[in-house]
Amino acid sequence: MKKATLIAVGAFAVLLVLVLATRERQVSVGVRKLAPSGLDVARVTRVELTGTHNATLLKEGDAWTVADPSRPETRYAANAARVQSALESLARLSGADFVTDRAERLAEYELDDAKGLKVRLHQEGGAPLELVLGKDGARNGGTYVREASGSLVFAHPAWLGGAWRKRVEDWRERRLVRAEASDITELTVRIGDAAPLTLKGGGSTEGWKLAEGTQAPEGFLFGAQEAERLARSVASLQAQDFLEGDAAAEAEKALAAGHDTVEARLKDGKSVVVKLERPSKPEQQDPVAVRIEGDAQVYRVSGVAAAALRKRLADFRERRLMRFEPEKVTRIKVQAGRDSPVVVAREAQGWTLVEPKKLPDGVRFDAAMVDSMLMRLRGIEATRVIEPSVPDKAAGLASPTALVELSLDGAPAQTLRLGKEAPSDSTAQKERYARTSLDALTYAVAEGPTLDFLSRGVGLFTRSAQAGGLGAGALQGLESLPPEVRRQLEAQLGAAR
Fold it and tell me: Is the confidence at residue 273, as pLDDT, over 90?
């Protein structure tokens, strides 16, 4: 081999070694990454938002507060979960895709001073990280982002606009009571000129009960679940709005003129007192002003939330329309409208179908469904008591749209009747008149779940013969579905065998 060739080969080998030794470093040089210094969400102690939205978030212990930068001395409790979610939305900074380095295109991506949202993140033990958030709907489905100190545009994979473009009010904690329903041990309700009503025993093994000495009408049966509902309503009360200036002054005047009160005593001995503005037209459930004792802020809550707190003794009446022990039921009769009744009876060998005498082809009686049906019956609740009581004929109860009769061992029989549609100011659901043999009151029940259930007739206790071969428990839970849907599912499951 010629000397020149040897020299050339040697030089090539040296160059190859150099390329291999420096390849990774040379490839890495010039790779454009967003925020190479990184972000540790756990170390963020302060967030400053400027530009299209202005707010300052400050971590104090495990809690966050928020303030308007123009009034930094006025701080409000912030929704910690909302702040945490926003911070975590930035966690994938290193995964952002480079888009362009052309500064003249910043306006196109809404990353200029006019439309960009600046987010300055202060991290414990580290230098601040300042980003500008731009237009949502980037090519990777996320949001266009740049570092405030440069003009390189990246497409962050998360949709950041919804997490960060918020007013001070949007960051604020809207939950007004810092307690869980299980923390409430006593409730006292003061409505209008009525005597205070006190409920005790929340969070205990004995459960809720009326305070000793409460004067209740003869035959009144207290519903502990109604007291539990009130406790949950107090614990979940949220502000719809934060009132300031003239609106707050007007609300204060209305509260001073007259208000209703709900006081919740907690396990730690502290009390939370909620003061509710009295609405001029309660039936319309308009929003009302609210104050929490010891809190200078005036809030506005929805009329629905206020109505859930404004309770009288009658509202704590037991609303379950049938009350029995399933093992004591000996006979069940269900009839919807003019349909033939369906009757089952408990015999020595177990539940048997009495009526109809003959089932349709392909349908079999399933005794196991009786217990499920009884549990559904025990769960039927009135949505409200209708006062004054409505006569049977006017309520359509003389010829009911649905009838249930239960015979009980060692106890009087119980009946439940559903009648005509009951007029209601609420558009949320249709209601029907209802009456039970347990008292003489007229109730309203939700039409859909109750009437649909009782109108299933023989379907309450039967399955298709085809479904019977799918194995024990294969269709558990289908009995709660509408008949047509249930039949379709049973047919599909049978075809799949």
Answer: yes
Cα 33 from Cα 309, distance rounded (Å): 54
The per-residue pLDDT for 478 is 52
What is the residue-wise DSSP string for 230-277? HHHHHHT-B-SEEE-HHHHHHHHHHHHH-EEEEEEEETTS-EEEEEEE
Closest alpha carbon to 155 in 82, 112, 92: 92
In the three-class reduction of DSSP (H, G, I as helix; E, B as strand; rest coil), residue 369 is classed as helix
Instruction: Give the model's pLDDT for residue 471.
Output: 43
Task: Find all residues with CB under 8 Å of 377, minimum gap 6, and list them.
Answer: 322, 404, 406, 416
Residue 274's pLDDT band (cuts 50, 70, 90): very high
The token pair that represents 176 in the structure block: 């007004």
3-state DSSP assignment of residue 175: strand
Q: What residue spans define the domains of the chain?
A: 41-171, 181-316, 326-465
Q: How many CA atoms, within 13 angstroms, populate the side-chain half-sphere of residue 49?
A: 24
Q: What is the CATH number of domain 181-316?
A: 2.60.40
Closest residue by Cα to residue 433 from 441, 424, 421, 425: 421
pLDDT (tens digit, 9 = 90+) per residue, 459-476?
A: 999 887 665 444 444 444
The string of pLDDT tens digits covering residues 198-235 is: 999 887 778 999 999 999 887 788 989 899 999 999 99
Return d(Cα 106, Cα 59) in angstroms, integer: 32
